[in-house]
Specification:
binds zinc ion, 1 helix, mainly beta, 34% strand, 13 strands, 11-stranded mixed beta sheet
C-alpha cells in the first residue's frame, strides 16, 4: 500500500495585497536606515549583483547591519498597495547575517513601487522605454561576453523621500518561493524622472574589462 504523502502548508507566501486601513501602527519598529552609496556590480541575467569586495550598501534594521546583495525589477509590480499596482517594482535584497539565531528570516527585501512622471498635459510618461534601454544594455553585453557586464549604480536614486513602510513576514516570489523573507514595502511610490534612472555607467571607476 503506497504511503500517503502530506504536503506541508505554505503559510506566508508573497506577494500580498497591502492595505493601509487593515494595517496597524507598530511603534516598536524603527525607521529603516538606508546607508546606500554608489557600488559596483554585475548584471547576471535579470539581476544586478553587487560585488562583495568593495564598500557596500546596507540598511540598519533592528540595530542589525544588513548588506545589500542584489536588486531586480518586476513589471508590473507584484505587491498591491491600497489596490494600486505599480508599473515596476524594485526589489532590494539584503542579507540578514545573524540568521538563523537572532532572526527567523534569511533576507530583508525592500520593495519600492516605481511610477513614471506625469508631463504637463497630464499624460504619464511610460517607464517601458527606460526598462527596454536597461535590457538592451544587457543584450549587448551578452553578445560580448556571456550574460555578464559590470556597472556602477547608486540604489538610493530609487528611494522615495518618505520611507514609511509596510512590514510582514513572507516569501521569495520566484523560484521555490521559500518563506525566508522579512518584507519591507515602502508605502510611497517613487516617481521616476529623466530617461535613465538606473544610471548604469560602465565608464565609472568600478568598471572592469575582464
Ligand atoms: Zn523580486
Amino acid at each position: 500500500m503506497p504511503a500517503p504523502l502530506v504536503t506541508p502548508q505554505l503559510t506566508q507566501q508573497s506577494p500580498i495585497k497591502l492595505h493601509t486601513m487593515r494595517s496597524y501602527y507598530a511603534p516598536e519598529l524603527r525607521p529603516l536606515e538606508f546607508q546606500y552609496t554608489k557600488v559596483a556590480g554585475t548584471l547576471v541575467g535579470e539581476e544586478f549583483v553587487l560585488d562583495r569586495t568593495g564598500a557596500g550598501c546596507h540598511v540598519v534594521f533592528d540595530g542589525m547591519e544588513c548588506p545589500l546583495r542584489k536588486l531586480h525589477f518586476h513589471a508590473p509590480g507584484e505587491h498591491r498597495i491600497d489596490g494600486m499596482v505599480s508599473e515596476l517594482e524594485l526589489h532590494l535584497v539584503h542579507e540578514i547575517l545573524e540568521y538563523p539565531d537572532a532572526y527567523p528570516s534569511a533576507y530583508l527585501v525592500v520593495g519600492v513601487m516605481l511610477e513614471s512622471k506625469t508631463d504637463k498635459t497630464g499624460q504619464a510618461q511610460p517607464l517601458a522605454p527606460w526598462l527596454r534601454g536597461h535590457f538592451d544594455a544587457r543584450a549587448v553585453a551578452r553578445g560580448r561576453r556571456g550574460d555578464r557586464q559590470e556597472y556602477e549604480v547608486d540604489p538610493s536614486v530609487y528611494l522615495p523621500e518618505d520611507r514609511a513602510y509596510f512590514r510582514y513576514e513572507g516569501s521569495l516570489t520566484t523560484g521555490d518561493t521559500e518563506e525566508v523573507v522579512t518584507w519591507t514595502v515602502l508605502r510611497d511610490f517613487r516617481t521616476i524622472e529623466g530617461p535613465a534612472p538606473l544610471q548604469l555607467d560602465p565608464r565609472a571607476a568600478g568598471w572592469s574589462s575582464r
